[in-house]
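Journal club prep, notes for RB
We'll compare a predicted complex against what the paper describes. Inputs for the fructose -6-phosphate case:
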Amino acid sequence: MCGIVGYVGHRSALDVVLGGLQRLEYRGYDSAGVALVADGSDGMFLASAKRAGKLANLIGALDEQPLPVAHTGIGHTRWATHGAPNDRNAHPHISGRVAVVHNGIIENFATLRAELETAGHELLSETDTEVVAHLLADELQTTPELPDAVRAVCRRLKGAFTLVIADADHPDMVVGARRNSPLVVGRGDGENFLGSDVAAFIEFTREAIELGQDQVVVITPDQIDVTDFDGNAVEVTEYHVNWDASAAEKGGYELFMLKEIAEQPQAVADTLLGRYNAAGELQLDEMRLSDDELRNIDKIVIIACGTSFYAGMVAKYAIEHWTRVPCEVELSSEFRYRDPILDRSTLVVSISQSGETMDTLMAVRYAREQRARVLSICNTNGSTIPRESDAVIYTHAGPEIAVASTKGFLAQVVACYLLGLYLAQVKGLKYGDEISQIMAELAAVPAAIQRVLDDADVVRKLAGELVNEQSFLFLGRHVGYPVALEGALKLKELAYLHAEGFAGGELKHGPIAVVDDGTPVFAIVPPRSRDRLQDKLVSNIQEVRARGARTIVLVEDGDDEVLPYADHVIRLPKVPTLLQPLVATVPLQIFACELASQLGHDVDQPRNLAKSVTVE
Ligand code: F6R
């Protein structure tokens, strides 16, 4: 959601900003714009261009009407909240000598706008952002130094915002501010950068600085100063980004999603890497909770959204089984509005690939206010959610660019499993050899995923056969149930088709009514080692088939019992039941991706969706 870039240095600011916006495209947006501080015959001035639609529209406009060469600039891709995605509402918004780009929602914008209009300001757009530009222009009348004026305006704003500002009177400076919305700083040599995330500047530097809540950063070519909103200097955390620009590129794949699906064996292997200490015990490096604290945990609540929520649903089965600690899984957006029962012995586990999802961030804050301990599972170093948590386990999936999560999901399941095993270890509920046995099974998963990837032709062919279908059902039991939900979500997101996942046991309680002649029904058959589960699901398959469904059965190697009821078979490598989601999800991702491609959709950036949902 909204990509932001700021630059000061010796390069062409336009090239840096457009390159950064291109790398942030994955976040989802519907208009784009840039502003440069350029040198004109009458002194420095703001040169700006903005266009609705994709970045290509802006680049086309800039080709027709080039902007002057400049070394300071800001840029933005907007995901509309206040006002339609048109040229007028696109950012930057300019008032007087300043240009402003913004991510988030200014909650008191209506009051501020009324105040400005009464004072004679004419606002041209419907956005909350333009209000900030006008407030700032006003403030600069009495507070001429840009950083001071930005701090003064920030103190008046309510809600969530990242602001990045260029000023014609300060040509070598860009100022950024953040509250409840992401902004990171890139440290260069004789140049510095701001970005919604490190992808914005990864081509130029891998040295980054985390900004805290309610902070203002001033970058010039040689300096980075960070203060709070009152102007007090603050300590910052610097970090090195452990991936490079090539990781954020397609690397020969047609789509980011295809690349990320193919990277899943590596994502799982990397998330498992380095989790043992010299004594052969499981260790979780970034865990900031002591073993004593963990021993006292008597309830776990997992909070997450979307695909991450489904990872949590999978994890519940393993965590409860291994630790015997009750584990609830709840949507972040529902959690804090239902008065959950939390105390010091509750462990709240947030799962977020981006680490910026506003619903999850708010739920994390709520949990901490209620004195629960919060552990976050996250894929993005330096993002807000892990920073605000008591503990963190990073997934090491590498940057996920396609809007629909794939490798992020698998890595989250693995990280949750590590947490479950670690809790079992510190609580003394599993012997070392039992933990090693499960770790060995997990270590074999990357090869199993690779097998699924190598056998994917059958899935792609199937997508071709089903390309004209309008409605799909997915059915699973136990850990196969969240896999069914995830399969349906992927298809909705990418192919814009009706798709529903449900638990096999629920079939007769309603969903079977929608099964009609030819309805495609995917069924994830549990491994045979879980006899009762497997039998029950085979019965479900027979039930839908008897009503005319076209059955697509995902079943482990060697299980032929279901073959008489399967119109199509997708074979899965044999793995233990709890690990089956790590292989069974993959064909469903490939199916959705292929079907959406055949329908001609933009798979990496599906309509209406954003990668990082930074508003509630
Ligand atoms: C679906 C998808 C979303 C995210 C959700 C949470 O493919 O990507 O449902 O899983 O928006 O995002 P994070 O994990 O960044 O909090």
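Talking point for the session: The radius of gyration is 26 Å.
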